[in-house]
Amino acid sequence: MTEPMLPVGYRVIDRTVETHDSATIQLEPIDRSLDRFRPGQFAMMYAYGVGEVPISISGIGDDGTLTHTIRSVGAVSRALHDARPGTVIGVRGPFGTTWAPEGAAGNDLVVVAGGVGLAPLRPVVLSALAARSAYSRVVVIAGARTPDEFLFRAELDAWTARDDLDVELTVDQPAAGWDGTVGFVTEPLARLRLDPERTVAFLCGPEPMMRFSARVLLRAQMPSDRIHVSLERSMKCGIALCGHCQLGPLLVCRDGPVVTYTVAEPLLTVPEL
Amino acid sequence: MTSAGLFDGLTATEREALLRASHEEFYEDGDRLFEEGGHAGYCWLIRNGRVALDTTVPGRGHVVIQTLGAGDLLGWSWLIPPYRWHFGARAVGTVEATVFDAAQLKVLADQDPRLGYLLTQQLLAVVLDRLQSTRARLLDLYSHD
Amino acid sequence: MGHATIDTDELGTLVQVLIADGYQVIGPTMTGSAIELAELTDAGQLPAGWGVETGPGHYRLHRREDDAMFAHSAGPQSWKTFLHPPRRKLWSSDTDGSFQGADEETPRYALLGVRGCDLAAIGKLRDVLGGGTYPDSSFQARHQALFIVAVNCTEPGEVCFCASMGTGPAAGPGADLTLTEMSDHFLVEAGTDAGRELLARIDHRDATTDETGAARSALEMAAHRMGRAMPEVDLRALLAGSRESSHWEDVAERCLTCGNCTMVCPTCFCTTTEDVTDLTGDHAERWQHWSSCFELDFSHVHGGSVRSSGESRYRQWLTHKLSTWYDQFGGSGCVGCGRCIAWCPVGIDLTEEISRLAESAHD
């Protein structure tokens, strides 16, 4: 067995600027590959000499590469965000639970993303599109602060153009030229006609955004175990040894990041838990 | 808010009365449904399409504050004095809507306080949803500054 | 195999045999004003004749009337120092993208004088660090190489409550040898083949029924001499239901959030990492060191710390120890050693806080 605390060297082979503070990097293994990541799982990514942070995968990676979308919010994420092709990144993983979109086969899929929360959900949409006939309706609601702050904008436009996908982009703050939806993600979500017992929802974004969205779904009579959310907490090891990612009874790195709202609801409403 | 929601708890007679106070309307892209400051004499149940609520800001023209979509109820200034629109409304793309005459709604409500109470509750639910969404946007959750 | 008896002096032979077998013998010894755990080369280094007086925020050595070596309750350290070291290199790397594990040589420790509470604590560390999908390989190697000489505790202290936690005063299973210290001899019980083999190499005889009876009654008396008891409530449920109790504010008014309780706790396992580079920037290393949930940075996510208030951090510590540990690792995280009470600079006593929480839960 390999040592799970020891990073494996990957090299950045492609970098795409997404927004003013976010970029997607694609990495290929230098010598040894990690096991295949599943949608929702994360890697511990080490920027040389700076540090290590957990980052969810934002691509499918069936060619052995890893795709991560990184928002520059701290020293380590800035270094990862800035990594140009050729840069060596230390990667550990795959860690954590998966969205397991295949478990929702036969249902309507509702994907609700806020801000960079779209990154961990992109593999859900990609895998749903790859097995499109396995699902009934597939809905993607993505919210951003402004029209310039959507990740994967060209891909979102391509998804919007498809007739087998219902995509609604919504912004908090419109800008000149934006003729789309203006409002919080809960508004288009509330307009959906859901079949609550035949729908599975995947939510990712800031915690209040997930709570507010989940409430809309619960009000539409969706059972809370059909609602999945992805949690974020401080992580140092990623493998349930360091204790940092505790959220009440959960070790988010091991029991999450993806959990049902049945599990998350009582934990997300307690301040400073 | 869906039309089903609007008619929740109403008897068949009450529904018919409401429908008699309404007509179907069709708007082209860019049509203005009402203007800020204008007399609020109607409310709309959007059947299809998108409506943008806006206001004017010098140098920025019409600034969209929120958009409404299929199933949403548009307009509640008709219920509360001074019965003036606080924002303007514009069709984004083609819009189909059921338009209710506010004067007739008020007469119905005055005649039948039970119906008036139910309608007020439905409107309050719409106001509450919209207030909460607006508060969520005020949190500016996607910013990290 | 029943109990054996060895003379007090024969403990010296035991230490020498362990050293001859290549073990580093770790045991209690006097260092200044406390009894600490350190490498022993001679049984004479044991703190014969010294006892301790403990209380909330209180720990003092005192001279005993006898020459007992293990009649002192828990000191500031626990065995985790040796199994889960305070600071450890994880790996080093050069800019070519290769990462070299620390490749540490696994120390072979013989732990001498492990009380029931601390033996249970080692078991809890094993469940946390060695029992999951991704075990800590350094801990596992150290744990597997252990030789454990436990002692049944006949001298519980003022802050002890192991009897109410079910971990003592008799040492539970898991030790190679278990000693009971009597006035002029030790009663010995071997718990493993390794223990039996070792016992065979030191001078011993079969224990008489009087000797085993005396040891048993000393332990029974000890169980009734605990300075404290954890209230008999469902701790897991009490704390799970007390997340929003106002009592946390009350504790926070006293708690300095210094983290002493987590450092002295024999089961607190949390760590953080530190990334360093040399001046040229061509060589990087990652180190792991103990961390505490009382640190403000512990729960840092971009934007700030999840647990910024003192009350939320104390709640996290106590709730984890007594309640969510069950959810995460299948048992309690507390063994009743009382160190957190003795080494709290303001004398916060978790058994007392539990009583208060239980009272407020009934209100």
TrEMBL record, chain B:
Gene3D superfamilies under this entry? Jelly Rolls
CC per GO annotation: cytosol
Q: Which PROSITE patterns match?
A: CNMP_BINDING_3 (PS50042)
Do you know which SUPFAM superfamilies this protein is assigned to?
Answer: cAMP-binding domain-like
Give the Cyclic nucleotide-binding domain ranges: 6-75
Among SMART domains, the record links this protein to:
cNMP (SM00100)
Q: Which InterPro entries does this one have?
A: cNMP-bd_dom, cNMP-bd_dom_sf, Env_Response_Regulators, RmlC-like_jellyroll
Name the UniProt record assigns to this protein: Cyclic nucleotide-binding domain-containing protein
Enumerate the GO terms in the molecular function aspect.
DNA-binding transcription factor activity
Source organism per UniProt: Kribbella soli
TrEMBL record, chain C:
Q: What is this protein called?
A: 4Fe-4S ferredoxin
Question: What InterPro entries does its record include?
Answer: 4Fe4S_Fe-S-bd (IPR017896), 4Fe4S_Fe_S_CS (IPR017900), Helical_ferredxn (IPR009051)
Keyword Transferase attributed = no
| Source organism superkingdom | Bacteria
Instruction: Respond yes or no to whether keyword Iron is given for this record.
Output: yes
Regions crossing the membrane: none
Q: Which Gene3D superfamilies match?
A: Alpha-helical ferredoxin
Query: Listed GO molecular functions?
Result: iron-sulfur cluster binding; metal ion binding
> Where does the record place the 4Fe-4S ferredoxin-type domain?
245-275, 325-353
Keyword list (alphabetical) reads: Iron, Iron-sulfur, Metal-binding
